[in-house]
């Protein structure tokens, strides 16, 4: 690589060469230049990365081949970088900051004599002060360069109209063949006609004239390097070349003259290699198709970016609708880019297939499907089935998607499909209904093998799986279900009506405790079953015996059809023991006492049936007879009054509360 240098850089290099030669001769000076000036090892940058180059800090000046003047620079380009730095060792000028006042220098100017404007009222005079306004009423208030406040001092000059006068001069001892740095700071204190300063050593001008700006109180630096050659002393002079009497007022401060060390180092910064990118993919596709382009870089780990879109990845998926150009760049892990690669994609006219015939059918029905195309010369077939008919009828047993696959001579293909949804034929089943009783309601429930069908009941406008009827005669119920317009076969069930049996009311019974009784009833239906409660005995008669009055309930039923339940009471007569007597003697004399013979119910509870009381004389002739228990014999018959004597009686009856019969006889005496 060819390094380019500015004129300043060339001058610096000349000084470096001279200094190197001088350092070989003058070991004393070289011994003081002991800074380890190192910019670091040569390095390789990631492409696009920034690197900061750091020269050792603390030196007085820095000059890089990038024209930077700081101790550090930031770079982002490969190349060779070097820096030249200077170090001022000591200031040989005495009282260069004028802190010692008007001492250690000479001047062709007079020290201020004063006047109407102050100490520097006259041209060609100078003064040492901390503030310019203190020496001239028209000077602004400016502080020195060293301190920048009232504690510092500076040389303030009212410029002369005479050329060549030395403003400041001082002689210092120097080492032969040594580089020295001279610098000073100056500023204008009046804006008009700024000073034009020149600098010389041993009568020879160093550097160019130093023209101060018209900005007042603005310190500016002049600096130059001087080589002593064979000189052992240096007389330094500052001259103002501006002779205008108006304006031309200025100040000087911080005059330095120092021996200098020069340092330099070089660093090479390079970039890693850039990746090579290869693109692979078809150069033509059919309209509507997808395409994938693959990029391959020869540096592992490289990232491929596709344009337009700035999409990253090793592959790019596209669906172009027109001829398209795709660009890509590979970026290595070191951020180095490949050259741009492009892929040209030609889009061929698309084959368009449109299938028709989407339909919903019931299982067992037929649907018609087909397709249209924008091209006549095509190869095609249907899947499933492999048919090559453009239109066909299908009868799938389950929901099926039929796809038509077609291609043309250009290699373009297309596919489309139709869906035939097959709904099942629903089934319906009615729960069987047993015989119901006349007047009862009955629920009929239908079940189906499909979810949420529509129910259609014969003769009823109702959509429900359960209906409630109250038929009065034998009936047949039918139902069909429909789902997605698919109908089931009907199912039916018969409902038979059972007549409700009637039962006759039984008569109550009064009986004696422990005596057997019979209760009887009947129903209007011959096949009815009569049940007695609580014994649950069946039959038209109920035979039993009880000790206490008891209620019996009874009903008739045929299957689940029941009559009303009736009740009957068996009452117990607590005086069922019939106690009786007849007199054994009576006196029918009319005195009102024991005048009659009759049957006496001593218990008062005899229930007499078949009653007969007969009286016979001693010859066995019937003289009196009664069939009424309350009838009495007064001792007479149809012939008149009977004779006194012994008669014989015969008594027969049945007790109505028992099953016993009485057949008794005895004698009775009739007395007058």
From TrEMBL:
Q: Which domain of life is it from?
A: Bacteria
Ig-like domain boundaries = 40-99
One Pfam family this sequence matches: CHU_C
Name by which UniProt lists this protein: Gliding motility-associated C-terminal domain-containing protein
Species this protein is from: Salibacter halophilus
């Amino acid at each position: 690589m060819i390094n380019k240098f500015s004129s300043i850089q060339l001058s610096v290099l000349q000084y470096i060469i001279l200094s190197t030669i001088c350092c070989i001769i003058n070991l004393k000076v070289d011994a003081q230049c002991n800074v380890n000036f190192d910019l670091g090892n040569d390095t390789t940058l990631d492409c696009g990365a920034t690197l900061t180059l750091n020269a050792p800090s603390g030196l007085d000046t820095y000059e890089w081949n990038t024209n930077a003047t700081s101790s550090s620079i930031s770079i982002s380009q490969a190349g060779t970088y070097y820096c030249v730095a200077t170090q001022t060792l000591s200031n040989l000028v005495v009282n260069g900051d004028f802190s010692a006042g008007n001492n250690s220098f000479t001047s062709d100017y007079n020290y201020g004599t004063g006047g109407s404007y102050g100490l520097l009222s006259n041209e060609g005079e100078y003064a040492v002060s901390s503030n310019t306004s203190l020496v001239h009423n028209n000077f602004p208030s400016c502080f020195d360069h060293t301190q920048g406040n009232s504690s510092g001092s500076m040389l303030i000059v009212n410029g002369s109209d005479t050329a060549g006068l030395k403003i400041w001069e001082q002689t210092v001892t120097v080492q032969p063949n040594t580089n020295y740095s001279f610098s000073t700071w100056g500023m204008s204190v009046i804006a008009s006609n700024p000073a034009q300063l020149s600098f010389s050593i041993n009568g020879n001008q160093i550097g160019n004239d130093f023209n101060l700006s018209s900005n007042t109180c603005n310190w500016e630096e002049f600096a130059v390097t001087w080589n002593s050659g064979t000189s052992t002393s240096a007389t330094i002079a500052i001259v103002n070349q501006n002779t205008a009497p108006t304006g031309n007022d200025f100040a000087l401060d911080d005059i330095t003259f120092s021996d200098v060390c020069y340092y330099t180092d070089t660093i090479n910064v390079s970039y890693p290699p850039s990746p090579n990118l290869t693109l692979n993919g078809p150069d033509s596709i059919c309209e509507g198709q997808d395409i994938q382009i693959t990029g391959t870089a020869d540096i592992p780990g490289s990232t491929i970016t596709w344009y337009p879109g700035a999409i990253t990845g090793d592959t790019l998926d596209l669906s172009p609708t027109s001829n398209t150009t795709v660009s890509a760049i590979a970026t290595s892990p070191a951020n180095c880019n490949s050259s741009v690669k492009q892929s040209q994609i030609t889009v061929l006219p698309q084959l368009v297939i449109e299938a028709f015939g989407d339909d919903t059918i019931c299982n067992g029905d037929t649907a018609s499907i087909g397709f249209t195309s924008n091209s006549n010369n095509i190869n095609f077939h249907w899947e499933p089935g492999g048919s090559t008919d453009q239109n066909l009828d299908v009868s799938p047993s389950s929901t099926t998607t039929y796809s038509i696959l077609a291609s043309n001579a250009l290699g373009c293909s297309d596919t489309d499909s139709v869906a035939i949804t097959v709904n099942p034929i629903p089934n319906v089943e009615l729960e069987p209904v047993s015989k119901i009783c006349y007047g009862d309601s009955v629920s009929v429930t239908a079940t189906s093998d499909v979810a949420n069908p529509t129910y259609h009941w014969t003769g009823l406008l109702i959509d429900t799986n359960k209906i409630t009827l109250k038929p009065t005669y034998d009936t047949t119920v039918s139902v069909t279900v429909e789902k997605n317009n698919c109908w089931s076969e009907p199912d039916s069930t018969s409902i038979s009506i059972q007549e409700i049996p009637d039962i006759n009311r039984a008569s109550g019974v009064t009986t004696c405790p422990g005596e057997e009784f019979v209760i009887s009833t009947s129903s209007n239906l011959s096949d009815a079953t009569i049940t007695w409660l609580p014994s649950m005995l069946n039959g038209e008669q109920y035979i039993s015996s009880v000790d206490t009055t008891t209620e019996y309930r009874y009903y008739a039923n045929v299957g689940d059809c029941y009559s009303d339940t009736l009740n009957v009471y068996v009452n117990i007569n607590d005086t069922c023991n019939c106690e009786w007597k007849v007199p054994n003697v009576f006196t029918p004399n009319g005195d009102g006492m024991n005048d009659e013979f009759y049957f006496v119910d001593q218990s008062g509870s005899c229930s007499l049936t078949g009653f007969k009381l007969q009286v016979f004389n001693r010859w066995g002739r019937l003289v009196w007879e009664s069939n009424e228990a309350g009838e009495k014999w007064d001792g007479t018959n149809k012939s008149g009054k009977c004779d006194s004597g012994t008669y014989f009686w015969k008594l027969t009856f049945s007790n109505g509360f028992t099953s016993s019969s009485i057949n008794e006889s005895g004698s009775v005496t009739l007395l007058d």
